[in-house]
Design goal:
By secondary structure, this protein is an alpha/beta fold. The protein contains 8 helices and 8 strands; from the N terminus they run H-H-H-H-E-E-E-E-E-H-E-H-E-H-H-E.
């Protein structure tokens, strides 16, 4: 079986075994991808997942202060707003310079330019909370980046990880509304990589059922900022969990949750 067919079947993470030249080419294609799609214009940009993050992520964290938070691929850092009063310092690693700011609601922000290799120029065990929300599917060498994120997480620290677990179509062809290289990460392989890095899975929730935004389209365009929409999305995702698949070949296979939200902890 060809390598591409193995990846489309969900039995391998496309790009995870790339060499340095292919990784560099991928990085150049994706570095400004998110900024180019929806975040270049600061006046029109708004973060669209606050309710989802609260329900599936932040409410599962301990009720404490976080001295040093890493937002990996966090753009403007807006995903941290629900807990920003409990944060002392923020570091953001991002490939684009389009989002750089000096502070986030009064909290100092340090920006670090992402490297194509995925190596993090950060101290080991430096961060007690890491957010990585919808980022890894833009990166080829997923397993290496997860190892690096685990390295810089303190023992007892938490990581919030959300990723699409479907192919997002055939990435060899242009896809409307998507960047050139992004592709989902098969659920089983994502969980295997997390476990191989000795991270504890505290919660795992399927989400992003494809018809949720359509149900709420007449009311609001940012469905995942709505508690009601997120609640319905969770019900639909659990109801159709049996239908999880990576690359659908039949219309009925498209009726399944398309993402997973993990709350992880590094053992002490």
């Amino acid at each position: 079986m060809r390598r591409i067919d193995i990846c489309l079947s969900g039995d391998a993470i496309y790009g995870d075994d790339f060499g340095s030249d292919d990784i560099n080419a991928w990085f150049l294609d994706e570095a400004e991808g998110y900024a180019g799609l929806c975040a270049r214009n600061g006046d029109s940009y708004s973060y669209s997942y606050h309710a989802l993050n609260r329900r599936l992520g932040f409410r599962h964290l301990p009720n404490c202060r976080f001295s040093n938070v890493l937002g990996f691929g966090s753009a403007c850092g807006d995903e941290l707003l629900p807990i920003i009063e409990r944060v002392d310092q923020v570091t953001i690693v991002d490939a684009s310079d389009a989002f750089v700011r000096q502070e986030l609601h009064g909290k100092p922000v340090r920006y670090i330019k992402a490297k194509a290799s995925g190596d993090l120029p950060l101290s080991t065990e430096a961060f007690d909370l890491i957010t990585c929300l919808g980022v890894l599917h833009h990166i080829p060498n997923v397993s290496h980046v997860i190892r690096e994120l685990t390295r810089v997480l303190t023992p007892g620290g938490h990581m919030l990880l959300r990723e699409p677990i479907v192919s997002m179509g055939d990435w060899r062809r242009p896809r409307q509304g998507l960047t050139r290289r992004e592709r989902g990460i098969p659920l089983r392989l994502l969980l295997d990589t997390v476990i191989e890095n000795d991270l504890e899975v505290l919660t795992s929730n399927l989400c992003a059922f494809p018809i949720t935004p359509r149900i709420f389209r007449g009311w609001r365009t940012d469905a995942y900022n709505s508690t009601a929409a997120v609640t319905i999305d969770g019900l639909l995702s659990r109801l159709f969990a049996w239908n999880v698949n990576y690359h659908p070949t039949h219309p009925i296979q498209r009726l399944r949750p398309t993402s997973v939200y993990l709350v992880l902890r590094k053992p002490r």
